[in-house]
Amino acid sequence: MDSTEHDDTLFKTLFKESFQETWKDSPDFALYLTELSASSVEKLSREPERLAEEKAQILEQTEHLAFHNYKTFIKTAECSKEIFHDFVSVEKHVESVLDKLPTFSETCSNFMKAAQEINTSRHLNSLTLARHTQLLEILEISQLMDSCVRNGYYEEALELSSYVHRLEKKLSNIPIIQNIVDVVQSSNKLMLSQLLQQLRSAIQLPACLRVIGYLRRLDLFSESELRIKFLQARDAWLQSVLASIPSEDPYYHITKTIETSRVHLFDIVTQYRAIFSDDDPILSMENEDSPIYSNLFHCWIVQKVQQFLKTLENGLERGVGNRLDSLLGQCMYFGLSFSRVGADFRGLLPPLFHTAALQSFSTAVHNATSRFNEAMKSYSLQSVPSTVTSTILSTMTTKPEELYPPVELLQYPPLATFTNSILSAFNGLRHCAPLALVSAVTESVQSALKAIIQTTCTFHRAEAAALNETERATFAQFCQVLGRQLIPYMKRCLEAMFPSSVLSDMYGSSSVVADTTLDVNSLQLLLEPVMPQETVQESEQKPHHDDEAETKQKNEQTNVVLSDKSLPKDVKDESQEEINEKIPDTEQQNLDLT
Is the pTM of this model over 0.85? Predict the structure, then answer.
């Protein structure tokens, strides 16, 4: 590195401003510089002259060469010019080629791609031709699936659906396969609708098993959802059957509802338990991983029972006449049938029939009271010839234990009409007279008797000033028959309807039984203000107590009517006809007013 710096310094010293950088790398310059360095002073002093002579000599040679070879130089110049023009032309062509090369390259690439596509298409066409049969079968799957579903060939339709599902997993990227999948899914929806529609019809157990099997294979619902769908579909069919029952006649509507509900609900329960056998809690306990769906079925059963009871209640409110006993027997048999599936609802029936029986009886008693009031508005006190009463008494033969109405009532049409109406109410109640109604029935009769007594008192106040002696005597007899004949007779009818021995067994206390009997004394006291004084004094001389021995004898001879305690545990043990045979036929006890 020191040698290089020394040379640079030397060059700058010798050639101050005329030194060219290119001389450094010239070997001739280095050689000449070496010769100069080795020359003596004398030689160095003659060197400029020598160089001048050599320069002149070279110039002379150059001029001589140019003079003798000027044609060659001219040709060389012309050739150079032509070569220059050729190079310019070549450059232009090269630039043109360079401009067109990308387009050419792109065209070649497109050609290669088109060729590859043609080759691929040709290969696919060849492969398609070779697999034509298999492809045709796949393309016809959607049409075949639709035909199977519409014709009810669900087994074949499910197999096709399973095959298409496998195709979708493997070839879902192929548009035609995706199109086939969409069509098959649409057919599956149609099949689902048809299967659910079958469950909404009168279908038997084998068909139910097949339908649920198809629904399970569709794999559209979970196990709980499948149960809900089954119950919804069967319930829709049941509701349609119940809705088709004519509702004009309440009795017919209730009886058909009972029969339809009993038969079809039991069939649905049987179908459900046969199809969903794992719903049994005992079987479910063996497998801890198996969920228990019994709550779902239990809620549905409870809902159906409540719906039936509501329908029954509405029908009873509309009125069924004197046929409550028949409905009670049918409902009890319905409840007994459901006890075999763990849904015995017989304990819910008494309140409904209690209310219906009491409502019917109360309405009849109210109508009887209204008719009595209307009759009293137009009633005139006229004495009935004693021969009429004697003739009637001679033609009627009564037994001590029979509850025939007092014949004296025939002399007074308002009392006779009222008695007939009350007896009709008793006849309607006797076939279905629960002991729990004894207080309500007694109170209703007591209120009715109070009402007719008040009407009688009102009649007396309005007509007392215009009555003659004969009419006063007739009115006194009217009050006497009302207080001493009709009221005790009503009490005997109530005791026959609700025997004191049965009431004692139910309540366990005679004092409680006494509270449920008709208060004859209080009713008779209400009549005293309108009765003549001598009649009242005559009445006070007589003992105001019932003949207990006679009442007991009548109760023993009168069989027990249907009550809460006599409701059969098993409806088959005793038919309603056998119960009715034990009840005295009071329907023949109405007074003959003709």
Answer: no
